[in-house]
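User: I'm new to structure prediction. If I give you an amino acid sequence, what do you actually give back? Let's try with this one:
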Amino acid sequence: MIASLLYLLAVIRRQKALAEIKNDLISNITHEFKTPIATIGVALEAIESFSGEEQNQRTHKYVQMSTEQLERLNGMVEKLLDTASLDRGEVILNTEPTNLVAMLDRLIHSEAMVQSGKQLNFESETEEILYPVDPFHFENAINNILDNAVKYGGDKIDLHIGRNTEAVVIRIQDSGNGLSGEHRKRIFEKFYRIPAGNTHDVKGYGIGLYYSLSMIEKHGGQLQLISTEPTTFEIRLPHE
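Assistant: Good question. You get back a string of structure tokens that encode the predicted 3D arrangement of the chain. For your 240 residues, that looks like this:
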């Protein structure tokens, strides 16, 4: 009897946790979708009211703004669809020899352009490290980890790549406050987000690191959180 009650209590807690995750995900998706949709609506209203000599120039500006927001919406949808495809095992990698040094250098510079308050550093032991990856999915996997460091880390983020006799090793380290034991255990769970006051203060769905882990493992590699003070993620891609 007691065992049955304990089992029932565990089931109820599990269902409650799943309901909270679902509600949080729906809330975050709704919140993030509202901004680009509202921006497009305002732009279209403005275009409708234009007249005079500046009409073409102003129309071009607002059409471009709408296009950018549509691309943003498309990116959000693609991220959710990619996660569903991973769960069903439907993602097919199109691998090709890729210079990972050039890829990471491009990623860190792109991130630095939009993160003026952060110090982002990139260090490589060599100018070229070729490895067979799917450029699209692997770049997204790295970008998700970088994005996570920007959101939750401190003001300094270090990205390093090198290789030894066993593997290509990539490390991403930030200067944030670190992670507690509970968060460390759950950091790669799908839809899990580190509580940070108002959940809308930090954008995201809680699928970035889950996607990164799944995609790197699909490449035959490993992704681990090797340190929490400072927070350091390590990717190991074994030599073929």
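You can read the tokens as a compact description of the fold. Here is one thing that stands out. Residues 46 and 237 are 51 Å apart (CA to CA).
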